[in-house]
TrEMBL record:
Record protein name field: Zn-ribbon-containing, possibly nucleic-acid-binding protein
InterPro entries from the UniProt entry: UCP029037
Superkingdom per UniProt: Bacteria
Species per Swiss-Prot/TrEMBL record: Shewanella denitrificans (strain OS217 / ATCC BAA-1090 / DSM 15013)
Matches recorded under Pfam families: DUF2310
Lineage: Bacteria, Pseudomonadati, Pseudomonadota, Gammaproteobacteria, Alteromonadales
Length: 257
């Protein structure tokens, strides 16, 4: 991933309030399309211009060809607020984050965790994140629903990893149970992506707990009950289970590895 800076210059008298509103709307539109990562943007105003530093999946993430309908409308909104089209100044590679995928995947999966800022869509061959703007819009012109699903999944993951509140159990249930709301929504998004990309796309189901290693190794698929989902070797050193008809991958319980 990369760091870039956008500068917004006013071309006529405008109110700070109107400018801020237009800029924030533009940044939200980019975020909903996967063109920028993270959720908080520090926009600084100094010497007549606004500046913001952004984390982007690829050097070209802000290229016009990736813009969603909302991003295009938001760009017009900048003009209405009397701001020139943003100028980009590339800063460099982010030292703390992963590279984005550049290879055609033979399969894909929805996988995230509370420490990952990158796209939740991963290449199944190498686990590298696939920038969302590279696939057709999942719903209503962009990937808002995916980003929302991802932030809720991450919030649940953080609560259960912290293991410090009663919310831990409800949160764990959301990410590890096929009856949960997060599963239902994420699994539907997975199906949508598979349909749009024509690439087999799986949903990652988190697994922790369980009585013993043996019990965990003979754990059936929680959706269809099949034992055939267990693999001889874990894929990507992580996914011991993959159910083809249910389109689910899962790990051997983290308590028994
Ligand atoms: Zn199954």
């Amino acid at each position: 991933m990369f760091v870039t800076e956008l500068r917004f210059e006013c071309f006529a008298d405008t109110s700070i309030e109107a400018a801020e509103k237009a800029i924030n709307n533009f940044l939200e539109a980019l975020r909903a399309n996967g063109q920028v990562l993270g959720r908080e943007f520090a926009v600084a105003f100094n010497d007549g211009e606004f500046r913001v530093r952004l984390l982007i999946p690829e050097r070209s993430s802000l290229a016009n060809r990736y813009n969603s309908p909302w991003v295009k409308v938001a760009l017009n909104g900048l003009t209405e607020a009397k701001i020139l089209a943003p100028r980009e100044k590339f800063i460099g590679q982010d030292i703390n984050s992963e590279a984005s995928n550049t290879h055609q995947p033979s399969w894909q999966l929805l996988y995230t965790s509370y420490v990952h800022m990158c796209s939740p869509l991963r290449n199944g061959d190498n686990l590298l994140p696939i920038p969302l703007y590279q696939i057709p819009a999942t719903f209503n012109g962009d990937h808002k629903r995916m980003i929302k699903w991802q932030s809720e999944w991450q919030a649940c993951d953080e609560l259960q990893m912290a293991a410090a509140t009663k919310a831990e159990f409800a949160a764990l249930d959301e990410i590890s149970n096929t009856d949960s709301d997060l599963f239902r929504r994420g699994w539907d998004l997975r199906g949508r992506i598979e349909y749009l990309t024509k690439i087999p796309t799986y949903y990652y189901l988190y697994r922790v707990g369980g009585e013993s290693l043996n019990a965990e190794l003979s754990r059936p698929c929680p959706k269809c009950g099949s034992l055939e989902w267990k693999l001889a070797e874990p894929l990507l050193d992580m996914f011991q289970f993959r159910c083809e008809p249910c389109r689910i991958v899962s790990n051997l319980s983290w308590d028994h590895q």
